[in-house]
Amino acid sequence: MSTAILGMGVTGQSIARFLRARGELCATFDEQGGKSMTADVQIGPLDAKKLAAFDRVAVSPGISWHHPVLDQLRAAEVRLCSDLDIFLESYQGELLAITGTNGKTSVTHLLGVLLETAAGGVGVGGNIGQPMLDLLSEIHPSPRALLELSSFQLQRCHEAHPKWAALLNIQSDHADMHADPEEYRASKLRLFAHQSEGDTAVLPVGDSFDDLAANLKQRGVRVRRFGYGNHADIGSTDTDLFWQDGAGVRCTVPLAELHLIGSHQQCNLAVAAQAAADCGIHEAVIREGVTSFRGLPHRLQLVSSHGGRDWFDDSKATNPDAAAAAMAALGSVVWVCGGVTKGLDPMVLLDSVRRHVHSMLIIGKKQAPFVALAKASGVPWSKLGTIKKAVLKASQVQDSLLPVLLSPAAASFDQFANYAARGDAFKQAIEALK
């Protein structure tokens, strides 16, 4: 079988490595090019006629599913696929999968740690950073694979069938890559399209997921709902984290024993705990895991206590819903915000800003959407532009020693390579104050 691979970032390169190691014919294409690409990459505008000569075309997540050339290939009935399709063609073990707008990396990471204690361990890959196809290069692949899956990977996949799957949330994001919110939601729900009797699905509590839960139950899928409050199967209350063991008995851990703050992060811990319990991991191991987990960098992370105030790096909050959750977790904050909105309107944060924000310090190159939000909210605000200036201004706020929260509600690529670089710049600016 011959394969054309579109987009030669991390995913595209992993597809090429995998197929070539198997002796399959493939050719690589990228519209932009880059320093890390091999010499055989064909760089320039994509040509539908040339691509149609291949048996299939593997599309990397960074390429819009609505690219005009892909539309031409669909019209010519050329098979389009993803790295997930190619992975599933070869993997024979048990598949566990996590998706959602926010929190999926944290859940996947913690669950991967917990499942390392199971016989045969676990292979962890996908959107979390380790390309899933690289898991198949191991001499003895694990009997179970845990994949973090983005909306782009699911949108491109034909028949994913996870034994255990969780959807953490569907919040406004990637409006620049999906045609509309309905398409974004549909891509996430594809994770459950082929689940059947004996499988497990974990969904948020809420009316918007009730129909999906009912449909899955009719197919014989075990459905668990998570959220805040005792009405959920899994989640957190004002005092405890809870999940169910293999016999359906409720297990609890006091919130005071956790390192993560915010009900959104604590519910993520509960989902990871439930997945581990469903896979037969001993309760003592799960308890140790959730109480020792300190979270991942740039996710509501306390990075300094300087000048009488705490400084929190939540640079991973690249959409409004993530920023709202961080504000609510801290109560009242000096908010550092701004960046590339990805087609999302920060004005949806108006109520959160009025309730939780003492003052807004706006960064980024295009600040108008956040200035409009500041004016509408009535809170004090400043246009600073850079992280360094925002941190200096935050240190000079005199009438409050509230925590300073970098939770931008926007992407970083107007000023930084990625959200991690933005978070690192925040920490460096705080250190410079000292």
What proportion of the residues is helical, as a percent range? 25-40%
Separation of the first and last Cα atoms: 60 Å
Number of domains as seen in the coordinates: 3
CATH superfamily of the largest domain: Mur-like, catalytic domain
- Coarse morphology: globular
Mean pLDDT over all positions: 95
Low-confidence stretches: none
Radius of gyration, in angstroms, nearest whole number: 22 Å
CATH class of the largest domain: Alpha Beta
Specify the CATH architecture of the largest domain: 3-Layer(aba) Sandwich
Strand arrangement in the largest pleated sheet = 7-8-6-9-10-11-12-13-14
Derived from helix and strand composition plus strand pairing, the structural class reads alpha/beta
Number of helices: 15
- The CATH topology of the largest domain: UDP-N-acetylmuramoyl-L-alanine:D-glutamate ligase
Counting DSSP E segments of at least 2 residues, the number of strands comes to 20
Largest sheet: 9 strands, mixed
**Beta-strand percentage range:** 15-25%
Description:
This protein has 434 residues and is α/β, with parallel strands linked by helices. The protein has 3 domains: 2-81, NAD(P)-binding Rossmann-like Domain (Rossmann fold); 87-292, UDP-N-acetylmuramoyl-L-alanine:D-glutamate ligase, CATH 3.40.1190.10; 301-433, Alpha-Beta Complex (Protein-Tyrosine Phosphatase, Chain A), CATH 3.90.190.20. Helix content is 34%, strand content 22%. It is built from 15 helices and 20 strands. The strands form 3 sheets. Strands 7-8-6-9-10-11-12-13-14 form a 9-stranded mixed sheet. It is globular, with a radius of gyration of 22 Å.
